[in-house]
Amino acid sequence: MAVSLIEQLSQEFDPEMYKDTYSESLMKIINQKAKGKTVKAKKAEPAKEGKVIDLMAQLKASLQNPKSKNAS
Fold first, then answer.
1. What single string gives the DSSP state of each residue in 11-69?
2. One GO molecular-function annotation for this sequence (predicted)?
């Protein structure tokens, strides 16, 4: 069942679609410190409560209603 789902939703990986925001933020901090500026750490936001779903039901439903490969 899982293999079938993976085959239906698989597509070519395009690394250009993703951006490394952590490294960018870290480099900004490093550059500011290198210039002698003080950097204040941002406070972390509390985690949001997630919506609990039945994964097995979702998996079965996705196999019954296959999407095209380009839809994902």
1. ----GGG---HHHHHHHHHHHHHHTT---PPPPPPPPPPPPP--HHHHHHHHHHSPPPG
2. double-stranded DNA binding
Q: What is the pTM of this model?
A: 0.43
CB 32 within 8 A of CB 39: yes
**pLDDT band per the 50, 70, 90 thresholds, residue 68:** low
Region of 2 on the Ramachandran plot (φ > 0 left; ψ -120 to 50 alpha; else beta): alpha
Which tokens is 20 given? 């490394």
